[in-house]
Design brief:
The protein is α/β, with parallel strands linked by helices. It has one domain: Glutaredoxin (3-Layer(aba) Sandwich), CATH 3.40.30.10. Helices cover 38% and strands 18% of the residues. The chain contains eight helices and nine strands. The strands form three sheets. Strands 5-4-3-8-9 form a five-stranded mixed β-sheet. Strands 1-2 form a two-stranded antiparallel sheet. A two-stranded antiparallel sheet has the order 6-7. Strand 1 and strand 2 form a beta hairpin.
Length: 200
C-alpha cells in the first residue's frame, strides 16, 4: 500500500465522522493556493532547534556525515502527520541508514516533554522561524481557526500562535544546500518514501 492510499483512506474515515459544515471548511483549506517556496540550490542557514524532550539538535549535526531529510509537519495533533511519520520510520529510516543520511521531523509545536514513539529527532520550530525562511509557514484563516477549535485543536496553546506549515520534505546535502523539496499545500497528501529515496 502506498502512503497516498493510506492517507486517502484515513481522510475518508475522518471526513465521514465530521459534521458536513466542518468537512466543507477543511476541504476548502486543502485547496489552498501555493505560495513561493525555497528552491533546489538554495543554501539553508544552520539552525538549532529543541527536540520534544528538550534536547537541541542543529542542522550541522544532521548533515555531518551525509545528507539530511527534513520533514516539516503540522503537529502531533494531526492524524495525517502521524501516519506519515510512522510510515517514514518503517519504510524510509532503514534505507537512509545504509547511506548515512539522517531523518528529522520539524513542526511549529511547542516542546512539551512528550516524546513521540519515533527513532529519529522530532524538533520544535516554535514561531516557524526555519519554516518561514523556506516559505512553508502561513497564517490560519478565521474560518479554519473556528473549525479547528470546534474539533478541539487550539493552536494558540499548542504552537503559541495560529500559524501552520505546509507539509514538506526537504533533502539537504552536507553543505546545507537543498537538493530536493516537495511541498504539499493539500495537507492530506505527502511525499512517498520511494520519491525521497530516488531524490537521495
Amino acid at each position: 500500500m502506498t502512503l497516498e492510499t493510506a492517507l486517502t483512506g484515513l481522510n475518508d474515515q475522518l471526513r465521514s465522522a465530521l459534521p458536513p459544515e466542518l468537512a466543507e471548511v477543511l476541504d476548502a483549506d486543502r485547496r489552498r493556493a501555493a505560495t513561493e517556496f525555497a528552491e533546489v540550490g538554495t543554501k539553508i542557514e544552520d539552525f538549532t532547534l529543541p527536540g520534544a524532550d528538550g534536547v537541541p539538535t542543529s542542522l550541522g549535526e544532521l548533515v555531518a556525515d551525509g545528507s539530511a531529510v527534513l520533514v516539516f509537519y503540522r503537529g502531533q495533533w494531526c492524524p495525517y502527520c502521524n501516519l506519515t511519520l510512522r510510515t517514514y520510520q518503517q519504510e524510509l529510516l532503514p534505507e537512509l541508514a545504509k547511506s548515512g543520511a539522517r531523518l528529522a521531523a520539524i513542526s511549529p509545536q511547542r516542546p512539551d516533554g512528550t516524546v513521540p514513539d519515533l527513532e529519529f529527532p522530532v524538533l520544535s520550530d516554535v514561531g516557524s522561524t526555519v519554516a518561514r525562511k523556506l516559505g512553508l509557514s502561513y497564517p490560519v484563516s478565521a474560518v479554519v481557526r473556528e473549525a479547528m477549535q470546534t474539533l478541539g485543536t487550539d493552536l494558540e496553546q499548542v504552537n503559541g500562535s495560529w500559524e501552520l506549515v505546509h507539509p514538506a520534505v526537504v533533502v539537504v546535502d552536507r553543505d546545507r544546500v537543498i537538493r530536493f523539496i516537495d511541498v504539499h499545500p493539500d495537507f492530506v497528501t505527502r511525499t512517498e518514501p520511494a520519491d525521497i529515496l530516488k531524490a537521495l
